[in-house]
Amino acid sequence: GRPTTDRRMMFAHLFPAGLHLPPVAVAAAEDCPVVLTDEAAITADRNEELRVEPLVTEDALVAQGQPLLRLRANPTIALVAPMAGRVARIELKPGRRLTRLVLFREGEHRHDYPHGPQDETALRGLMQGAGLWRSLRSRPFGRMPDSGERPAAIFVMATDTRPGAPDPGTALKGREEDFAMGLDALQRLTAGQVWLCVGKGRDLPVPAGVRRVQCGPLHPQGLAGIQIHHLHPARLDAPVWDIHAEDVADLGGLLVTGLLAETRLVSVTGAALREPRLLRCQSGADLGGLGQGFVRPGPHRLFSGSALDGQQAHWLAPRDRQVTVLPGAAGADHRHWFGAALRRAARPMPVIPTAALEQALGGDIPAHALIRALASGDPEAAARLGALSLLEEDLALADYITGAVPRVSAQLRAVLQGIATEEAAA
């Protein structure tokens, strides 16, 4: 039978799973300037459709943290200004689907929220009105939770094994009390377990009731989906949330001061840079501004996210804490080298079972069976094998290892979308 959670946790450090990836240089934590780009934007996340109602008009002067948009389906959930500025443009697709709301930096005003102790109802209302609800991600499907959703468990990620990722511990330095308060608040949102996932040697305050689990140093052990599958798999009737540790500290700070944090810790890495950067910037920052003065001469591409799972973009995606700058013209293919061999093949080639592929999915997921289920579009088999706990980022390393076309991560999204459509129609 399936081993118990306690037993699996006990032996996890004896059998570290994952892969050693080529090292990516990250700037020293001691050199961490604040860089506020002149422009920033509120955008939809990957695979996210936001139908919104604007609360401001173009050319309005707004304070940092002020609600600018609200969701039409969940009017209590707001999207807030990442910085004080003037609304340059609001771009909506048909059906009031958000493309982007762009701000020009101007002024220094900050929006103040009620603060102090909060019961569950008040806490939900505060997080939804102040824009922090968006920092939560619900599995299956990887969407922002509905306003009334209650998770079976919450995973707080204080580790990240993606190449070039900033250390969450650096983001929390000096904010330990805010972090502990935020952790305690999260426990009011669920009757289930709050898990704190940390790297080796990381000592963080843990309130009573929060369970700490040490994650391995190899990728993908520092991803939420791998830990969720390992410790508390998500189900259609029992969603599981994850949230970055820095966002938890932001929640604690909001409860103490009534003010939202102005910046997040972001690493800027990649072969097109003269040297890597570690900085603090606003949410939705202009990626070009974050690399300005540090990019080598010649064409380059900007990715929001890591080299493994990032996407070419103009703006920092809502949950990303990495920017990757690679040489080459915009739109150039950056797939793994093995992809060229596959594309030259006379017919599509199957994914070859290897030990590396098993490790690329954390060593606890039946990788080959899952990939077969995704390739054949079998939602029942995929769900049984763990797909409901996973998102594209969790399979990005498998994409790199296999060079598969279409990508395994894209096949996962197609299966998840099919399941979501069936659930909506039921």
Description:
The protein is α+β, with helices and mostly antiparallel strands and 426 residues long. Helix content is 27%, strand content 20%. The protein contains 13 helices and 17 strands. The protein has a 5-stranded mixed sheet with strand order 8-12-9-10-11, with helices on both faces. Strands 14-13-17-15-16 form a 5-stranded mixed sheet. Strand 15 and strand 16 form a beta hairpin. Residues 1-15 and 334-348 have low confidence and may be disordered.
Fill in the keyword field for this structure.
globular; disordered N terminus; alpha+beta; single chain; 426 residues; 5-stranded mixed beta sheet; 13 helices
Describe the protein's topology:
Layout: H1 5-12, E1 39-43, E2 52-54, E3 61-62, E4 67-71, E5 78-80, E6 85-93, E7 97-105, H2 120-129, E8 137-139, E9 153-158, H3 168-172, H4 176-186, E10 193-198, E11 210-214, H5 224-231, E12 240-244, H6 245-257, E13 264-269, E14 277-281, H7 287-291, E15 300-304, E16 311-312, E17 322-327, H8 338-344, H9 355-360, H10 367-375, H11 379-384, H12 392-402, H13 408-425
Helix pairs in contact: 4-6, 12-13
What is the tally of beta strands? 17
Low-confidence stretches: 1-15, 334-348
Order of helices and strands: HEEEEEEEHEEHHEEHEHEEHEEEHHHHHH
Beta-strand fraction estimate = 15-25%
**Rg, Cα atoms, Å:** 21 Å
**Number of continuous helical runs:** 13
> What distance lies between the first and last C-alpha atoms, to the nearest angstrom?
32 Å
The mean pLDDT is: 90
Overall 3D geometry?
Answer: globular
Strand order of the largest sheet: 8-12-9-10-11
* SS-derived structural category: alpha+beta
Task: Outline the biggest β-sheet.
Answer: 5 strands, mixed
Helix content: 25-40%
